[in-house]
Amino acid sequence: MIMKTLTKILKYVLLPLLIIIVVVLFYISIGFGKLDFKDDFPVTEDYSELFPESYEIARDDFRTLSAELHATYENVQYYPMWVASEKDTDLTIDICYIPAQGDSLNLLILSSGVHGVEGYVGHAAQQLFLENYLSEEFLQNTGVLLIHAVNPYGFKYTRRVTENNVDMNRNSPSTPDLYDTRNEGYTQVYDLINPQKRVRTGSLENRFFFVKAINEIRKASLPVLRQAVLQGQYTYAEGLYFGGQGPEPQIELLRPVISEISLPYERIMMLDLHTGYGERGKLHLFPNPMEDEERRKLESMFDGFEIDWGDTDDFYTVTGDFVGFVGALSPHKEYYPMLIEYGTLNSQTTMGSLKSIHIMILENQGQQHGFASKKDSLRVKGNLREMYYPESENWRNYVMHQTRDVFDVVLPRFIGQE
Ligand SMILES: [Zn+2]
């Protein structure tokens, strides 16, 4: 009788369980494959010529358009600012400033490439704006400042961070004590996100990264991980999400330029362009947490569009963000800061967010410790580029389509020509 029951359990419970485990393990062990999406977003227009193949091409296009604007409107300033580098003598942030042609009331700032490699799509949105929205009428009471490639090194060499491994969106100071910030949670996840060896994408730990990560999440809890990730850290210079130990050269270059240009204006709207976060193909409006009154003003400015305030139950602090830095340069003005994020890997899902972080871990690991083979290097770098600059033409057209929807409504509202 007992034997019979045992056999039954074995046959009907354990065996299927074993099969499920094997299937699941096989599925998640597919680990670090090529990213492959079959996009089918509804698009009518073709924006593909806005998307550049390289940093140099993007910069040339931006300069050409700036020169045309210089010939069209009064007092347009455009110039490159060289960023100090040990590896490359031709890395520039390019500025194009078109002052208000009448009263200086509103200033619109559009910035791209704060996270270098995200500059491709940021560039496309800047070009879209310059080609479609500028006019005598638009510029009547409104000036426009475009900052092209805040992190040109990352843009050119396909990294999110700067040459010093610094995340510019954690390095931009609103207060001088930024770099003393301690991120206690980071220490707990340090080993998981910073493996100290060469990258071998086919290794067991990479094949089973998801199992390992989920085990860490179980130990450290999701809020701790999220804090470690979102806040950034100022301690480990080789580590992921490093915010630096002082301002990057870009900050010192941009501080006087932005301060001076902002000076005459009363209201400033800043749109900082990013990719990689959120649902694939979706334009997310993703501001930092802020005071209730500011929040209401921003909500009415973007009325009609969904704003992603994050999970308000889980409070987290973000330090060193670029729009915060720009706002702090003009503390007594009406300020509308907004991050625009174009989603690529469905990072709102657990699998998507683990995939995203796995790509970032391997990319930084390879940078710090090297790759086991050329193939590993190509694989990891290819995935990083795809994560921040999808090849899919359908994706590209769709995000520009949504950008037009937002610009069409919000820009006239901001400049009072609704
Ligand atoms: Zn970004």
- Beta content: 5-15%
- CATH class descriptor of the domain at 56-175 and 241-344 and 390-414: Alpha Beta
- Evaluate the radius of gyration: 23 Å
Output the CATH topology of the domain at 56-175 and 241-344 and 390-414.
Aminopeptidase
- What level of helicity do the residues show? 40-55%
Helix/strand-derived category reads alpha/beta
Give me the CATH architecture of the domain at 56-175 and 241-344 and 390-414, please.
3-Layer(aba) Sandwich
Series of H and E elements? HHEEEHEHHHHHHHEEHHEHHH
Number of helices: 15
Bound molecules: zinc ion
Distance, first to last CA = 82 Å
Please state how the strands of the largest beta sheet are arranged side by side: 1-2-4-3-5-7-6
Shape: globular
Major β-sheet profile: 7 strands, mixed
Low-confidence stretches: none
Number of strands: 7
The average pLDDT is 90
Can you characterise this structure?
The chain is of the alpha/beta class and 418 residues long. The chain has a domain at 56-175 and 241-344 and 390-414: Aminopeptidase. The protein is 46% helix and 11% strand. The protein is built from 15 helices and seven strands. The chain has helices at 2-29, 55-72, 119-132, 152-156, 168-171, 184-193, 204-207, 209-220, 222-231, 249-262, 292-301, 322-329, 350-369, 374-388, 393-414, and strands spanning 77-82, 92-98, 106-111, 142-148, 267-275, 283-285, 334-342. It has a seven-stranded mixed sheet, with helices on both faces. Helix 3 links the parallel strand 3 and strand 4. The longest helix has 28 residues, at 2-29. It is globular, with a radius of gyration of 23 Å. Zinc ion is lined by residues 115, 118, 274, 276.
